[in-house]
Each structure stands twice: as structure tokens, then as C-alpha cells.
Amino acid sequence: MHLSEILNHLGEDRENYFNAVSPPIIQTSNFAFKTLGEFRNAFVDELESHLYSRGNNPTVKILRQKIAALEEAEDALVFSSGSGAIANAVIANVKSGDHIVCVQASYSWTFNLISSFLDRFGVEHTFVDGKNLSEIEAAIKDNTTVLFLESPTSATLELQDLEACAAIAKKHNLISIIDATYASPLYQKPFAMGIDLSVHTCSKYLNGHSDVIGGVISGSKIMIKKIFESEYMTLGGIISPYEAAMIIRGLRTLELRMERTSASALKIAKWLEDHPKIEQVYHPHLPSFPQYELAKKQMKKCGGLFSLKIKADSIEKMEAFHARLKCFLLAVSWGGHESLLLPYCAFHGIPGRPDTTIPWNFVRIYIGLEDPNWLIEDLAQALEVV
Ligand SMILES: *Cc1c(COP(=O)(O)O)cnc(C)c1O
């Protein structure tokens, strides 16, 4: 299906709501029935019937259909956060005594889910360097059921070879799950490479305006139905109809936003790479990137997120640099309209927490939708203090 069809029309039965261009927010918890027969039938398939909004809500369903189509997947389930979607996808595929292989540099709350939360329920794990296929394969045990990938990872931008990982998972009968947030559904196609389940947060590019938290799992009809009937209905991590409508609105401009942020970020990454105060730039589509060939092969574009190391000789210099920036906000997250910096010196010296192993001159940068030349000017004047 054409991308424009998905973003503008798919799932929108306008004749059912006065031909309104924008879909209604069906703000209801509950649905009533005319007859006992209809009522009885609704229980047959709660994912498709209109029974109760913890299961299916018409506004959420529009979003579900659009994201499944963007992912080139048979079906999808939308959640109230990306972390909720990740937890549901993993929990659905393990039981006590099973073992998970997961990439070491995964998102912090994924790491927490696997290393400490699921550990309480007797699920074992091994973290691996996702760049190393033989390390991944060597970590697989008789009781391994899940291979959890995140490519690229969102701070250090480490890729896994997705075709090779999917083949390893198939060979050992594992469910492969990817957190594919970085490249958005537009620029990386996990299912075409053989992955079983793909997860995205909607809080980043899919909504795109830094005003909603949400998440999604996509996969085959069978796998999605299994998650729906157990984890989705039991844990109740659903998104509200209002927030689903916000994400539908965000999706209208997904293609435009992704093109803009990708082009601006690559331009700024190139500019930074030539700057004398920059030690290194980590952008998967720069030829200097260690996994450049793989990045070109499995990602069409990279979006707006990349990292760099600044040639600063003290944390104070890093602080001075950040203090001088006028156009970038200091913040976690990314994928909105606004440019952000996540300085890793912020993770050094947090009371009661060990320092991160990532050096303090490391900075994650997100390029938003502003004029890239305006952002370059800001970076240039701030780098003067380093
Ligand atoms: C933000 C993020 C998540 C978590 O999503 P939430 O919607 O904040 O729960 C998971 N994975 C990656 C890569 C992220 O960047």
C-alpha cells in the first residue's frame, strides 16, 4: 500500500462519522448491545468486536491499522508507552525457567525488565555485544526462547545484522524481537529481514510532537492475537482514545518530518565531523562509522539522532558548552519538533548512583525540524568555549 494512503486514509471509515476528515475520539469505556445474540458474539473475538475499550476502541483501531501497515506487518497492538509494549512483547514469550539473549546496550528500561524484573520470576538472561554474531549464537542455551535486539541502540548507535540475527533465531527456534524505534517504520523493515516482532515507542517519531507517550508491537496475526488474549487484556497497558487520535494526527506528517530530520542531522553530523573541537561523530550513514556498510544495507535513512565526543579536557568545559547553547534543549527523549542534547556528563555524579561507563565528553544529539543552519550557528558559538 502506498505510504500516502496509509497516512491519510487507511482505517478511516469516514462515511460512518458524517464524512468528517479527522476521525472522532470515541471516548467511551463501554459498548452496548441491542440483542443477547450480538452480545454473545462479541465475546468470540474481543480484538475485533466493540465490547470494552481495554480490548478494542474504534479510534485506537485506526492507529493500530496504520502502524501495522507502516511496519508491513499483519497486525499491531498499541500501548500506553513504548516500555509497556516492550514488556508485553517479552513477557508473552517467556515463562519461569526460560532464558533471554539481549543486546547489552539496549534501552535502560528494557535492560531493567530483563536483568531485574523478569529475574524475579525465574527468567534467566545473557547480555551480548550485538555487533558480534558469534557471541550472540554462543549465548543461546537449551532454555533460550527470546532473542531481543535493538538496532541501532539509541545512545551508542550499535547495529545488529538483522538478517543474520533472524536466521540465528530461526535456527534455534527463538522468537526474535526488535526495538526498532531509532529508524522509524519508514527507514528499516524488520519483517522483510525475518524478525518476528517489532516494537516502537510512539513517544518519539510516530507522534512526533513531544506531547504523547505511547508504544506499539507489530507482528503476525497469530502472535499479536496471542499477546492480546493474555498480556494485553491482563496487564491493561492500553492507550487512551484521545492519545491515539493525537498520534494519528502526528502520523499525517511522519514522512515529511522524517525526511527533514534525516537530511538536517546528516548535514550537521558532517559539519561537526570537520570541526576541530570534535573528537568523533557517530552517525550510521557517515563513512567513518564503524558499521557504515551494514547501516547502509539495512537502513534507508537514519532520522535525526546521533552522538559525538567533544574534545573537552574537563567536565567544567562540557558544562560551559551546554550553558552557551541557545537553540537546543537539555533533555532525554527525542523524535519531536525540537532539537535536544543529552549530555552524558549528566550521568556522572548523580547522588546515590554509579557513574555511567560512557565518558563525560559523550553527547547524544537530536536534530529537530528547525533550520539546520540556525542550529549550526548555535553549535559553532557554543563550541568556542571548549
Ligand atoms: C524512548 C524509548 C523507549 C521507551 O518508550 P516510552 O514510550 O518512553 O516508554 C524504548 N526504546 C527506545 C529505543 C526509546 O528511545
Description:
- With 386 residues, this protein is an alpha/beta fold.
- The protein folds into 2 domains: 3-251, Aspartate Aminotransferase, domain 2 (3-Layer(aba) Sandwich), CATH 3.40.640.10; 254-383, Alpha-Beta Complex (Aspartate Aminotransferase, domain 1).
- It has 14 helices and 12 strands.
- It has helices at 3-8, 36-42, 58-71, 82-91, 108-117, 133-139, 162-171, 184-187, 221-235, 241-251, 254-273, 292-298, 315-324, 372-383, and strands at residues 75-79, 99-103, 124-128, 144-150, 175-179, 197-201, 215-219, 278-282, 305-310, 329-330, 340-343, 362-366.
- A 7-stranded mixed β-sheet has the order 1-7-6-5-4-2-3, sandwiched between helices.
- Helix 5 links the parallel strand 2 and strand 3 (124-128).
- Helix 11 (254-273) runs parallel beside helix 14 (372-383) and helix 13 (315-324) runs antiparallel to helix 14.
- The termini are far apart.
- Bound molecules: pyridoxal-5'-phosphate.
- Residues 81-83, 107, 154, 179, 181, 201, 203-204, 213, 215, 333 line the site of pyridoxal-5'-phosphate.
- The site of pyridoxal-5'-phosphate (PLP) has 13 residues, from helix 4.
